[in-house]
Here is the input.
Amino acid sequence: MHATARDNHGGMTPPNTPVLVVGAGVTGCVLALELAHHGVPSIVVERAARAPRHRELTLVSGRSMELLRRLGLTSALRRHGFDPDWPPEIVWARGIGQPPVLVSRSPSVNEVLRTYEKNTDGSDPIEAYLLLPSSDLTSRLRVAARDHPLIDLRQGWTFTDLRADADAVVAVLVDAASGERHMVQATYLAGCDGAHSTVRRCLAVTMEQLAPPVPHCTVYFRSDELAGPPPGPATIITAGLTLTWRHDEHVWIGQLPMSAGEATMADPTALLRGRLGSEPAEILGVAQSEEALRVATAYHRGPVYLAGEAAHHLAPPGGPVDTCIGDAVDLGWKLAAAVHGWGGPDLLASYEHERRQRALIDREMAARALETRRRFGRLAVAGASPEVLAGVLDQEAPQVDLAGAFPGARAPAVRMADGGELFDKLGPQFTLVDQTEAGEGEELVATAEAQGLPIKHLPVRDPLVRDRWAADLVLIRPDQHIAWHSGGSPAGWKHLLDAMTATVHRPDHVNT
Ligand SMILES: Cc1cc2nc3c(=O)[nH]c(=O)nc-3n(C[C@H](O)[C@H](O)[C@H](O)COP(=O)(O)OP(=O)(O)OC[C@H]3O[C@@H](n4cnc5c(N)ncnc54)[C@H](O)[C@@H]3O)c2cc1C
Here is the structure.
């Protein structure tokens, strides 16, 4: 465990850690684990003494699971996942108890895997999505962080303030158990402290919002009136109400968008009764939140960075947890490169460009999905026919596919002739995949290593890789994105090494 100095004004030198992570939600835990994956220790402070207890299910995409697989996390997470044979359903109906207008059935995890088996173009992730309770996701990641020897997780510690200059940051932390104030000096600080981020407030970074936030009420309840709950997790969307059924806990979760007037009224039971058209048997809990679409105007100031919901607040239809995991991985390997001394200044600067751009794209997707729900609700109230309602749902936003065999894209994930995944053979840092007959990449790797740059040389002789990967030499980033490729002999070593150290960021890079 790293030592910390008490703020006793006794002239003690604050201790150092390369990275101080504030918040042990999904983002903070994945960031600390990514740093550890690259050999960088961190202190993680988490205000809550216990893991959260959210009954909602979270869907983690296949791409996020692919990133978490690099960290050895997927098997443990899948143990908490929902039945892999169950296909999640979204039922769109004019009202509760009315026949569905459309049932949108997603393939089960096992169906997805069977599709991936057949598709050999490398565009699919090597992992299927995972549906699991939010609380299990956070708890499992916290256990992984707590058990890692390079991570010093302090639960019950609250970040309150910071002082930063160009080279370091001193954070003020309060330990709730003892009531003591501590100061920790870090080379970098990552604010992963969620939507109401104190770190962001300390930096005076503002949020840019797409539209005024819509207040929401979440009610957890049991009902005898709601007939025939589905046997697995399902979502029912009607005018003014989204209902999710947690079959393992026999609990309904109702999301109710509210008008400004309703937001201030004190009786959520009456609100729920009005939208359900029946009396809930038992209210188990109520929470108020905002359906917001906000992205921070800056992702860093000096050595202090923002990631996850501290940097963007996106409503769940947009898959905000995936945006958070992507931030954590991207910031993690780039901070590690800076800590180890081989990452050039442009590399860390590229975090803001790549990930803010990603959040803006995800925000548009979330906005469109939310608008579809709202239009559906408005038209249902106005008495539109099932055909008109089904037509609205047909216009749902497509997924963005960002995979490809070109620099800036996530590399094709090829299953090799021996049955192994190429992605599993990549190193933790950069990897030079070498398909030349004479192993021409050796010279590049030797030069890079002489400069202290970590690159794995991976000679590959595989017909499937040859077929999908256009170039003989392909340089892969730690996040499986293509940094550079060459058609033949690796000319211009300096340019290539610069690409890893100073100018690896490409303006056309779309981070997945
Ligand atoms: C109930 C629920 C259901 C969801 N469902 C989905 C879904 O289906 N799909 C999806 O994609 N996303 C979903 N999300 C959103 C997704 O879970 C979040 O986007 C993601 O978990 C955010 O992670 P985070 O770590 O950035 O922030 P948070 O989870 O908010 O974590 C921030 C952490 O920082 C701590 N903290 C805050 N302030 C301080 C401080 N001053 N000092 C120390 N620690 C501090 C907090 O205690 C918290 O643990 C859901 C979220 C919730 C809450």
Summary: Residues 85-127+214-291 form a domain with the D-Amino Acid Oxidase; Chain A, domain 2 fold (CATH 3.30.9.10). Residues 22-28, 45-48, 54, 56, 58-59, 134, 158-159, 192-194, 198, 308-309, 316, 319-322, 324 surround flavin-adenine dinucleotide (CB under 6 Å). The longest helix spans residues 345-381. The chain has 15 helices and 25 strands.
